[in-house]
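Hi support team,

I've been running sequence recovery on a batch of backbones for a student project. Most finish fine, but this one hangs at about 90% for roughly twenty minutes before it completes. I'm not sure whether the input is malformed or the queue is just slow. I've pasted the structure tokens below so you can try to reproduce it. Let me know if you need the job ID as well.

Thanks,
M.K.
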């Protein structure tokens, strides 16, 4: 059984208008194409350890790590990804879920 894939995004938006109109408003439709589901979206994350300065944390679940990779590397996503970089500092992580044994 394939492990679920998760995209963790830590974001510090510095141009809210550009981020919203050129990236955020478009990414959800692309996520849907690849079966991505936003399971966490927090615009006021509380950092309890470490020195991160972020204004948003998002976790997106995919049916598999392969599907996550397909999303991230897709032409349609890579077309809008530069808009995120133009309006926010961010760290993105591709993560594999824990395989639960029954």
């Amino acid at each position: 059984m394939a492990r679920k894939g998760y995209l963790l995004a830590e974001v510090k938006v510095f141009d809210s208008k550009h981020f919203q109109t050129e990236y955020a408003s478009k990414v959800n439709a692309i996520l849907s194409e690849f079966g991505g589901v936003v399971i966490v979206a927090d615009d006021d994350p509380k950092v309890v350890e470490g020195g991160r300065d972020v204004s948003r944390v998002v976790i997106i679940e995919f049916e598999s790590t392969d599907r996550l990779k397909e999303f991230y590397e897709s032409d349609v996503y890579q077309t809008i990804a530069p808009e995120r970089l133009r309006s926010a500092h961010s760290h993105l992580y591709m993560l594999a879920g824990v395989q639960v044994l029954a």
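--
Follow-up from support: It reproduced on our side and the slowdown came from queue contention, not your input. The mean pLDDT is 94. No action needed from you.
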